[in-house]
Amino acid sequence: MDFNFTEEQIAIRDTARDFAQNEIAPSSIERDIKAEFPHEIVKKLGGFGFMGMMVPPEWGGAGFDTVSYVLAIEEISKVDASVGVIMSVNNSLVCYGINLWGTDEQKERFLRPLAAGQKLGCFCLSEPEAGSDATQQKTEAVKDGDYYILNGIKNWITNGKNADVYFVHAMTDKSKEHKGISTFLIEKGTPGLETGVKEDKLGIRSSDTCTVSFNNCKIHKNQLLGEEGMGFKIAMETLNGGRIGIGAQALGIAQASLEAAVKYSKTRKAFGSPIANLQAIQFKLSDMATNVDAARMLVLLAAWKKDQELPYAMEAAMGKLLASRTAVNNALEAIQIHGGYGYVREYLVERYLRDAKITEIYEGTSEIQRVVISREVLRD
Ligand code: CAA
């Protein structure tokens, strides 16, 4: 077993770390308070190849591996988990699928600008009545000659307000249930595509989330990704990779919480010495460090398996499950260690908790990750 990263992986991690410190950190508190989308930061991330990390260079991407992707998302999310999710959705949920199932024409039209960070993508699967039970798509796409007419509503769409490309799942044949779902690539500005009010969220406030509706939206058949009826398979396989991205985002929050707790406990004095000398604090720090390392191993294992073209759905679900729980627990413990100071904005740890919670919900709740894991565990 070789646990060493390659020189390229280390260089990518260090670039992401420097970028996060220099370009993201200075505005993160203000963007969280004002719920402001980081337009300039996203553009700059594109310049570093971070918006299309695993897309081959021939289609405008950086051609990096998934392990490097995990390292970069963790570093970015350690400083600002909102930026982490914007990057993760574009990379894992949008670019990945177009690269794998798109025609050359679709790659030229959609993937090249997305991978270069010139355009932004969003993934439209969830609906008001189809969240965890994703097979129950009500959005319909009815064939009309060379076109499809789409009608329906999607919700909880990360990047929804700012996206240029919408990766949309819709029912093309209800009689076939989930095998009647298809995927479409739809551009901003298409008549009938409308976005709703931006959600006022607990955390990841600098990323945008909204509903997206399709009202007699006319889409040419060359915007169908893969074949008719492949949509659920595309969604599930895409989400397997997406869970690696969200696992890495959660690692960033968990690690940031640990580092903040260590720093504070070495300086804050109580009972005559730094609180780091108290066993009550030491045990908390031990558990936080152990859990974040265990979660990192799982997320990296999933990434490594994906790079080796081995099955990785279970490891991706395990990584997300553990990393998201660790993010919430570490943020809670970091607040506890900070005492009253942990409850106010100045020390950042309150934001870590607000940002952490969503990692247990989106791209499959923790309960859904357990469904995915248990099915593999019980497989004959
Ligand atoms: N990988 C690959 N294929 C999978 C799969 C996986 N993880 N899970 C299911 N499938 C396949 C099955 O093999 C099956 O294929 P066949 O029909 O060819 O046999 C098909 O999908 C249907 O599977 P099931 O019969 O198991 O369906 P189910 O309804 O019992 O369960 C589920 C499916 C696992 C619960 C699935 O619905 C699921 O993952 N739900 C969660 C959806 C989710 O993660 N939503 C997040 C939306 S994105 C988001 O968060 C927004 C954002 O902007 C960040």
Structural class: alpha+beta
The gross shape turns out to be globular
- CATH third-level topology of the largest domain: Butyryl-CoA Dehydrogenase, subunit A, domain 3
What would you report as the Rg, rounded to the nearest angstrom? 21 Å
Helix content: 40-55%
Query: Unreliable runs, pLDDT <50, ≥5 residues?
Result: none
Oligomer classification:
single chain
Number of individual domains: 3
Name every ligand kind in the structure: acetoacetyl-coenzyme A
Largest sheet: 4 strands, mixed
Adjacency order of strands in the biggest sheet:
1-4-5-8
- CATH homologous superfamily identity of the largest domain: Butyryl-CoA Dehydrogenase, subunit A, domain 3
Helices and strands, in order, run as HHHHHEEEEEEEEHEEHHHH
- Would you report the number of β strands? 10
Can you walk through the features of this model?
- It is built from ten helices and ten strands.
- The protein has 380 residues and is an alpha+beta fold.
- The chain folds into three domains: 7-120, Acyl-CoA dehydrogenase/oxidase, N-terminal domain (Butyryl-Coa Dehydrogenase, subunit A, domain 1), CATH 1.10.540; 122-229, Butyryl-CoA Dehydrogenase, subunit A, domain 2 (Beta Barrel); 233-378, Butyryl-CoA Dehydrogenase, subunit A, domain 3.
- The strands form three sheets. It has a four-stranded mixed β-sheet with strand order 1-4-5-8.
- It starts with 6 loop residues before the first helix and ends with a helix.
- The mean pLDDT is 97.
- Acetoacetyl-coenzyme A is lined by residues 89, 123, 125-126, 132-135, 156-158, 178, 232, 236-237, 239-240, 313, 362-364, 368, 371-372.
